[in-house]
Amino acid sequence: MQWKNTATRYGAVTKMLHWLIAIFFVYQYVVATIMTRVPLDESFLGWSQGDLFNWHKSIGLVILGIALIRFTWRKTTRLPDWAATLAPWEKKLIHWYENALYTALFVMPLSGYLFVEAGGYGVNFFGGGRLPSFLPRNESLALLGEWIHIITGYVIVVVLTLHIGLVIKHQLVDKDRLLHRMLPFSKQ
After folding, report:
1. Angle at CA 140, nearest 5°, toward 137 and 145?
2. Which residues contact 122 (CB under 8 A, 6 or more apart)?
3. What's 172's DSSP letter?
4. Residues contacting 149, CB < 8 A, separation 6+
5. CA 65 from centroid of its chain's CA atoms
6. Domain boundaries in the chain?
7. Is the N or C terminus of the chain more exposed, i.e. has fewer CB atoms within 10 Å?
8. Which helix (H) or strand (E) holds 117?
């Protein structure tokens, strides 16, 4: 198993960071959808709305940590060469949505943190205790954080749809096995 990227393949570290973020994005979307629909006095599979919110906030901070690691890894290691089957417009699209996703990896958790801290909600990190607050309670700042968080969520959905759509096109239409460059345990 190769740990670093080569000219033709992504390494194990890049793949692991990619799929960790992907799994956490799906988790966050599902939990956010559930937690915003569970009434305050009810629970979902034994989880109260407050429990769901705290897990969502905790995972958001974990994502921020992984994003920092992933961004550092991305900037300090080589990337594989472009796949030969990518059209010039696809390379431009990939470059654009890579930048958009990296931006969202930071804006999403930071805006969520701004929202909950300025809103006075705080973060009970995985139920182990409330993290110290570095922001004063400020309703306008909380509202700004909330709206940035919501808008960034929609941006992520659009950009991930483009990303997944391009991967599906290459896998099912072009049949060039482009997906195998990023799949764990795959051979190209």
Report:
1. 85
2. 116, 130, 131, 133
3. I
4. 108, 111, 112, 115
5. 11
6. 12-181
7. N
8. helix 88-118
CA angle 115, 116, 120 (to 5 degrees): 115
- Distance CA(96)–CA(118), nearest Å, equals 32
Give the alpha-carbon dihedral of 114, 115, 120, 123, to 10 degrees: -70
Q: Which two tokens stand for residue 167?
A: 């991967």
Model pTM? Answer: 0.85
- Eight-state DSSP code of residue 40: T
Mean pLDDT by 10 residues, the chain (188 residues): 86 93 93 88 81 92 95 92 89 92 94 94 89 91 96 94 91 82 73
